[in-house]
Design goal:
Number of helices: 6
CATH topology of the largest domain: Rossmann fold
Oligomer: single chain
CATH architecture of the largest domain: 3-Layer(aba) Sandwich
CATH class of the largest domain: Alpha Beta
Strand order of the largest sheet: 2-16-15-10-13-12
Helix content: 10-25%
Distance between the termini: 33 Å
Shape: elongated
Number of strands: 16
Number of domains: 2
Structural class: alpha/beta
Radius of gyration: 24 Å
Largest sheet: 6 strands, mixed
Order of helices and strands: EEEEHEEHHEHEHEHEEEEEEE
C-alpha cells in the first residue's frame, strides 16, 4: 500500500486553538494477472416490495462491491426497478465512494417489473457501444416477476435476442426464496451465468467468477492507527470501524483490490501551541498483509506535523 497524506493547512496560529484536517490516501498495487477485455456492464437491481429488508440491503452492498472491483477501463451503469425502471448511474467509469452513496439510497418499492429493468439496461448498452468491450447485463433479484412481461418463455426470448446483438445476461439470485428455475433459464437464454449470493460478503467472489480475472485482493486486513500527542484531539470523519488501542485508536479498512484507493479523513483539534516552531501532532501507523508475491505483514509509520506562527493570517 502506497500512502500519501494531505493537510488543509500546515501553519497554525501560535496563541489560538485551531483545527487541521488530514486526508490519508492508500493506493493498492496492481493485481498480477492475465489481461482481459474492458467491461461494459449494467447492473439491474430489484427493489420491489418482496426485496424489503435484508435482500435490498444485500443487493445494494453487492453493487457497491462491484464498483470497487472494476478497473479504470471498465464502465458500469445501474438500473433499479419495481413497477417502473429508473437509471441510478449512467454507463460510465465512476468514483466508488460517490457512486455508492447513490446506490445505498435505493429503497424497496412496489411490484417486480423485471422485464422493464432489463430493457432499460439493454437500452443503455445498445446506445454507447465499444466494440472491444464485453457487454453484459447483470440482474440482481429474487426472481418473482409480477409486472410487465412475466412469463418465462417471453423473458427468455428477450435475453436470447440480446445475445444475438452481443449483449449477454447473467442473473444473481438473492434471498432464500428466489426463483432458481426462472433465473437459470434467463441466464441460459442470455448466454450468461446464474448464481446464488448469500449476501454482500459473498458478492466479490460472485463477481470475480462472473468476470474471469476481474480483480484480486492484493492487501488484506488494512488498518490505520492514529496516535495523537497531547497537542491535539482527533476525530475520524469516515464511517469505518474504530477500536481504542494503546496510544490512540485503530481504523479498520478491510481488504483492497488491485489499484484500489482507500481514504481516511481525520480532524485534529489543536490546543494553542504557545511557542513558535514545529508542532508534533502524532503519527499514523499503517498495517496490512501483502498478498503480492510472498504473503507478508507490512507496517509503515508517518509523522504528522504542522508549524506554529505568529502570522495573523495563519
Amino acid at each position: 500500500m502506497q500512502p500519501t497524506i494531505a493537510l488543509d493547512r500546515t501553519l497554525v496560529a501560535v496563541n489560538v486553538d485551531g483545527i487541521v484536517h488530514l486526508m490519508l490516501e492508500l493506493t493498492a498495487p496492481p493485481a498480477v494477472g492475465a489481461e482481459r477485455a474492458p467491461i461494459d456492464a449494467v447492473v439491474v437491481l430489484d427493489r420491489s416490495g418482496s426485496m424489503a429488508g435484508a435482500p435490498i440491503h444485500a443487493v445494494r452492498e453487492a453493487t457497491c462491491n462491484l464498483l470497487r472491483l472494476l478497473g479504470s477501463e471498465d464502465r458500469l451503469g445501474v438500473v433499479v426497478f419495481d413497477d417502473e425502471a429508473q437509471m441510478v448511474l449512467p454507463l460510465a467509469s465512476h468514483e466508488p465512494d460517490a457512486a455508492s452513496v447513490r446506490i445505498r439510497a435505493v429503497e424497496a418499492g412496489a411490484s417486480t417489473n423485471l422485464s422493464g429493468g432489463w430493457l432499460k439496461g439493454m437500452e443503455m448498452l445498445s446506445g454507447d457501444v465499444r466494440p472491444e468491450a464485453l457487454r453484459r447485463i447483470i440482474v440482481l433479484t429474487d426472481g418473482h416477476a409480477n409486472a410487465g412481461v412475466t412469463d418465462s418463455l417471453s423473458l427468455c426470448g428477450l435475453m436470447s435476442a440480446a445475445r444475438n446483438q452481443g449483449i449477454t445476461t447473467s442473473t444473481i439470485g438473492f434471498d432464500d426464496g428466489y426463483d432458481e428455475v426462472l433465473l437459470a433459464a434467463l441466464a441460459d437464454a442470455g448466454a450468461g451465468n446464474d448464481y446464488w449470493c448469500a449476501g454482500p460478503d459473498q458478492a466479490p467472489q460472485v463477481f470475480a467468477a462472473e468476470f474471469d480475472g476481474l480483480a484480486s485482493v492484493v492487501a488484506q486486513n488494512i488498518s490505520v492507527e492514529i496516535r495523537p500527542t497531547d497537542a491535539a484531539e482527533v476525530a475520524v470523519l469516515n464511517e469505518y470501524p474504530i477500536v481504542v488501542v494503546d496510544g490512540g485508536f485503530q481504523v479498520s479498512l478491510g481488504d483492497a483490490y488491485g489499484g484500489e484507493r482507500r481514504r481516511v479523513v481525520a480532524m485534529y483539534r489543536l490546543n494553542a501551541p504557545g511557542a513558535i516552531g514545529e508542532v508534533d501532532l502524532g503519527e499514523l501507523v499503517i498495517r496490512w498483509a501483502s498478498m503480492v508475491g510472498d504473503v507478508a505483514l507490512r507496517t509503515t509509520t508517518i509523522s504528522v506535523k504542522v508549524n506554529a506562527t505568529d502570522d495573523p493570517g495563519a
